[in-house]
From TrEMBL:
Keyword Secreted attached: no
GO MF: ligase activity
Record's protein name: Amino acid-[acyl-carrier-protein] ligase
Recorded superkingdom: Bacteria
Organism of origin: Hartmannibacter diazotrophicus
EC number(s) recorded for this UniProt protein: 6.2.1.-
InterPro entries: aa-tRNA-synth_II, aa-tRNA-synth_II/BPL/LPL
């Protein structure tokens, strides 16, 4: 905690991150944002030859789509919903009274049809399904979104609101596995170009509950998820900065996405944690970007 806290304090003191009073919810300076923009552009350079269709979604998504996705079955502890006041004058008066007395006023709010996006790819799948069967070559998408996960922490790499860049492949199992294998190699080349120490390891998602423990084991045993890890908070617990995920036919079945042959489509994605990579760069190269190694600056700024 001392290491995590000291790095976070350094980021605050330098003005790279800005405190908001909520753990894991921070403002970003212009310098921090510029590093993210440069890294995001680097990701584009590595993937642009593939010809992915670019989509950008807001940080909120349809609650019915969210419910259908199955996210709540696996990760209820991370989900965030959007509530709003939908009452009358009496309800408004109760809110004002609660504010005046320091009582909880949120009981006057109701859930809207918007939930906070948990991963950049979740709004995509109903869009794919609506288009009908995939073409023979499948489809490839380039996404970016702010995402929310309710896990307040003083660990700077574990933010509650953060940006995720993703490439998502939909197609046959062969097409999807080839895509993931390609990005397992490209992802390592990309991070090496930034002179960051890293390793790739099998991983699992934070599935919830008793059934979740079995899902974690199955995910690891089948090699469905790999993470590219960079030591940011510590060498002992490196941070997942990239993830490579093979969903098999989960989203294809959930949304009725079919290949051109009429079979259930498979999907995979590679995800880039934009804030996490920026934090890794500041941790290993220093808080002043002007002093970063020349090859790293040339990679990011040209």
């Amino acid at each position: 905690m001392d290491v995590q806290g000291s790095f976070l304090d350094q980021l605050f003191d330098r003005g790279l991150l800005i405190e908001t009073g909520v753990d894991g919810l921070y403002g970003r300076s212009g310098v921090f944002e510029d590093v993210i923009a440069r890294f995001d552009a680097l990701v584009t350079r590595y993937g642009e030859a593939d010809g992915a269709e670019v989509m950008r979604f807001p940080p909120g998504m349809s609650r019915p789509h969210f419910e259908k996705s199955g996210y709540l079955k696996s990760f209820p502890q991370l989900a965030g919903t959007v509530h709003s006041f939908c009452g009358d004058d009496q309800g408004h008066a109760r809110i004002i009274e609660c504010l005046a007395t320091g009582e909880d006023w949120t009981g006057e709010q109701k859930a809207t049809d918007v939930v906070l996006t948990p991963a950049a790819c979740y709004p995509l799948y109903p869009v794919i399904a609506k288009r009908g069967p995939l073409p023979p070559e499948g489809r490839l998408f380039d996404l970016q979104s702010y995402c929310f996960r309710h896990e307040p922490s003083l660990e700077p790499t574990r933010m509650q609101l953060f940006r995720m860049r993703e490439y998502v492949r939909a197609g046959t199992p062969e097409q999807v596995v080839d895509f993931r294998e390609s990005w397992l190699e490209r992802g390592q080349e990309l991070i090496k170009s930034l002179a960051l120490p890293m390793k790739v390891d099998v991983a699992n998602d934070p599935f919830f509950g008793r059934a979740g423990r079995m899902m974690k084991v199955n995910q690891r045993d089948q090699g469905l998820k790999f993470e590219l890890l960079v030591p940011v908070n510590s060498e002992e617990s490196p941070t997942a900065c990239l993830s490579f995920n093979y969903h098999q036919n989960h989203f294809g079945q959930t949304w009725g996405i079919a290949t051109d042959a009429g079979e259930t489509a498979h999907t995979a994605c590679v995800g880039f944690g934009l804030e996490r990579v920026a934090l890794a760069l500041f941790r290993h190269h220093g808080l002043d970007v002007k002093t970063w190694p020349k090859p790293v600056r040339e990679t990011l700024w040209g």
